Target: 5-formyltetrahydrofolate cyclo-ligase
Amino acid sequence: MREHALKLRHALPAETRAVLTLRLGRHLDRLMADLQPASLGFCWPYRAEPDLRDWVRCWLAAAPGRVAALPVVVERHAPMLFRAWTPGVPMPLDRHGIPHPAAGESLVPDVLLVPLNAFDDRGYRLGYGGGYFDRTLAVISTVAVGVGFELGRVPDTLPQAHDRPMDWLATEAGVIRARRTPQSCRPSR
Model:
């Protein structure tokens, strides 16, 4: 399921991804107006994910005092931490080739935008299989907003007990509150 979703996303022409990302940004504008976060975690675009950097720059510029943060992998099987990001901050590459802030105090963002490869309406997602976001969401208190393209929506991601659902899902088609039920996850195998 993960590989299929990645193939679909990579098959989108760059221009199409850019248009879909603009639509996604308009929906995020409305959601952020409701949530009113002072700090926002987001991810540097990776493997044809929505590139939200321009949207984040605009969000930062819209009100003084706002803080954007990027995740930093400190240890392979540990929760990530978040460091403040502004355009121009030094950004070395991590072991996956993803830029991250080189220094700074860690913070917990009020809202965290989490990339979606595949996702279901209950808020469960498939990332890249490393478990970084699941471990992180298990130990921080934040509003998790899954962000991705509609082509990644599936009926069921077959979540395991350790999987953490998103609170909201945002795509180019709109924003929905995740529909969690007591039976949303399956026991670990």
Summary: The chain has one domain: 2-177. The beta strands are 39-41, 67-72, 81-85, 106-107, 111-115, 118-119, 125-126, 143-147, 168-171, 174-177. The longest strand covers residues 67-72. The helical segments are 2-11, 14-35, 53-61, 132-137.
